[in-house]
Amino acid sequence: MVSPTPPSAHVQGNCVAQPRLPRAVRMVSLRAGQSDSIRQRPGETIFLKGGEQVKPFPPHPDLQPLTPTCNPPCLAAAMPPGVSPGPEGPSAPAPSGRAGRRAPPPPRRSPGLPEAKRRGRARRLHQEVAELQDGLQHLDLAAEKPVPSGTGLAYDKELTSFHCLWDKSFPECPARLTSIWTKLVEDGLVERCVPVQARLATEEEILLVHSPQFLALMASTADMEEGKLRALSDTYDSVYLHPNSYHCARLAAGTVLAVVDKVLSGELRNGLALIRPPGHHAQRERMEGYCLFNHVAIAARHARERRGLQRVLIVDWDVHHGQGTQFIFEDDPRVSYNTPSVLYFSVHRYDNGAFWPHLPDSDSSAVGRGQGCGFTINLPWNQPGMTDADYISAFLQLLLPVAFEFQPQLVLVAAGFDAAIGDPKGQMLVSPACFAHLTHMLLALAGGKVVLALEGGYNLHSLTEGVSAALGSLLGDPCPPLAGPAAPCPSALQSISKALGIHAQFWPSLQHVEVSALSTEDEGVEEALGETGGVPSPVELPCPEALPSLEAPPPRRPPACTGLVYDERMTQHYNMWDSQHPERPQRVTRALSRLQELGLERRCLRLPPRLATEPELLLCHSPEYVARLRATVGLRPRELHRAGSRYNSVYMCGESFEAACLAAGCVLSAVDAVLAGQVQNAVAVVRPPGHHAEPDAACGFCLFNSVALAARYAQQVAGRPLRVLILDWDIHHGNGIQHIFEEDPRVATTWQQQQSPWPRASGHCWETPHWPHLQSWHYPCLHTPSPVLSMPSAWPALCTVPTGPAFVSMVLCSRYVAGHMVAHGDASGHPMVLSFADLSAWCYDCEAYIHHPTLLPAKILAHRLKFGNELPALL
Ligand code: Q9C
Ligand code: ZN
Predict the structure, then answer these.
(1) Are 158 and 64 part of one and the same domain?
(2) Does an H or E element contain 643, and which?
(3) CA distance 812 to 5
């Protein structure tokens, strides 16, 4: 291997240019004299060179005072103008996420500081290191908040004790609740929930949202005769009153509060309130649209004012616009809290204003007022017939980006099921399974604190199916598969694009989304959509075909457990020449003990580890390659060294083959358990890693491509067609997986592509981009002229092999990239090498690290070059 020519531009005087580090990862050298930057920043991972990785645990978000200028950094940027003036003032454009990121650490100071300052710095560094290590030892890693568990289900038969006295076929009827209950019992869901006692909301609670006059009026209806009730009802839009209506509306509101309180206290993880009458059309002084009191609005105010929450998200997927909720919060004053409080998102049928409640306020142009600007998000559909794909798109493209930015502490869902297929009012086509998916997506928010309150839903069949599916998600069941097509229809895209265009000004997370293609002003689209009538026009924009349904539907009650597979023997693969190699055995031992400390390990089902068999390895690798790796078993160090150096960034020891077979086999074992339905999902804590391994070559610490093997294996053992998605979130490109599946349509691979992906076909060391755990070791190559030191005659006594004049060559490039340092001895004839990374010295002949006082001058020189100051005494 030939060493590349040095790029002198990377050396600035004596100060070597620092590699840029990603925001949350820094390498800290304990010897580097960086006392001013060793302090851990929030959320940051620090790698202690030569030590263990320190992963800080961020403080619990609920315990964190959230000031607009700090955590999370993007929230401040998300504040609509005027809400939280950042340093740039209220009208400054919000920085995009990228621009808002922390700048890389400042370059180190150049040498020439007074000696005393240097000593002081070294002393401070010592002290900080000691403190850091001490602090780490006393970290109580196990003392973390227990994860709340249990899904609350609130229902009271009392809530069926009212109906419309003068219209027996009124859609809002007692059977809605009784049929839901029957269905949930049938599906075995009731017994899996924690019952929550329904209760009456107090007057004080009602007054959180409604006026005293309105409350008094509603209270007075309890004693009214039918005639009076009817007369009063008729003065409102779409309501009926029954002598029990007031009582039940108070019971419904209180029941939502009961569930919310148990979720906020951590007694329950999430919950569902089965209530009627519905609430989201009720306004401060008005009943409307079957609603008397606005339960969800009351619960949001309660959470904020009585339970101290700062941010509540209301998601309203009822097919009608919850104008009541919007009016209550659209100008919600939040001065005393200095943070936005309630974000209202509603997706609803609008038909360009032709659908009830016929309000321009239901359009996406209504965004809130004053300080509430940007905190009302309406997504109006202008055609009936919206499908799962349309609702999923609405969530993925609009709601979730904003919600992740908003970081709610509680999610309240105005859960109507009148968008469900078969509903006489909504005339939408949402499947029951889709409600499981919508619910599931919300569970990622607010630490899972999600409470569903029933709103509309008038087809008893689709209502009950929808509720059952949503409750399944609250209970942790996997979502049932959705039927295609998977893409939103043109009209839905138009609605979503318009809302995105409007809200991008408030929410930086929406700014990257392309909104021009289908904006309302786009005449081409109007044409493609045909005359804007009530009926969806035949598809005119390309819409992907539905994927064939491959899977049999999963069992109704799947296994609720997670598999864990691990085998200690994987630690026998190690780098015998470098115990500090980043891919070291402690990676898995530490991971496992952490799982144990957290009590996660005992919540898993341990799966049997096993070796991948020869035929299994051949699913992705060539017979020659497998044989070549097998032949490394029992080789001597020198031969192993050579075997590893055939490949890019690979080391091997006598146990490497077995460990790699074990790593792959463990992943296969996890696949077995998942496909057999023994577990719902699984984790394999394995090493060596696999995703760089090619069909016929080891690469980047990887020997066998465990994930690629698992994908092929899954397809083989499933006994039926199987689509496999591989998500590769490793910071490096999974070149091996890509090459293995590039032409296989059955496996989709996805990874985050870096700007200049590693590995490169030809590796000049300064071209290799960041590999975070190697980054501080990546310095420009200074082979010519290498500082070469003559060794005195004492030298050979230390190192058994060389006689005569010996040389120490300083290699200032990465030892792991393109095999530079490994191959340096061969290429240059130098018998030993001094690492610029950690000032260790390597002897090629005895294949060992060595130390001797005669090396000191070379080390001092290297240190001076690297850090611009003298080697601290601690060396
Ligand atoms: N011709 C809920 O779903 N429709 N409310 C009025 C007038 C009112 C629905 C039609 C529908 C209200 C909670
Ligand atoms: Zn509705």
Answers:
(1) no
(2) helix 637-645
(3) 12
Instruction: Please choose, from the candidates 564, 562, 612, the residue with its C-alpha nearest in 3D space to the C-alpha of residue 592.
Output: 564
**Which ligand is nearest to the Cα of residue 324, counting in written order?**
1
- Domain of 821? 789-867
pLDDT digits over 753-796, tens only? 333 333 332 222 222 222 222 222 222 222 222 332 323 222 22
Q: What is the CATH number of the domain that holds 193?
A: 3.40.800.20
The count of C-alpha atoms lying within 13 angstroms of the C-alpha of 288, restricted to the half-sphere facing its C-beta, is: 18
Q: Which atom from ligand 1 is nearest to the alpha carbon of 278? A: 13
Separation between Cα atoms, residue 68 and residue 50, nearest integer Å: 38
Looking at the domain assignment, is residue 776 inside a domain? no
475 CA distance to ligand 2 middle (Å):
25
Asked if 21 contacts 772 with a C-beta cutoff of 8 angstroms, the reply is: yes
Q: 287 C-alpha to center of ligand 1: Å? A: 12
Pocket of ligand 1 (CB under 6 A): 238, 278, 281, 289-291, 318, 320, 356, 416, 418, 455-456
CA of 348 to the centre of ligand 1 (A): 12
- Tens of pLDDT along 140-166? 544 456 789 999 999 999 999 999 999
Q: How far apart are CA 5 and CA 92, in angstroms?
A: 48
One domain for residues 699 and 844: no
Same domain, 529 and 590: no
Catalytically annotated residue among 692, 770, 778, 783: 692
Q: What secondary structure letter does DSSP report for 351?
A: G
User: Does the residue 744 lie in any domain?
Assistant: no
Dig out the tokens for 613 from the structure. Answer: 């068999």
- Tell me: do 45 and 170 sit in the same domain: no
Say what the pTM is.
0.70
| 3-class secondary structure per residue, 387-456 | CHHHHHHHHHHHHHHHHHHHCCCEEEEEECCCCECCCCCCCCCECHHHHHHHHHHHCCCHHHCEEEEECC
Q: Are 867 and 33 in contact (CB under 8 A)?
A: yes
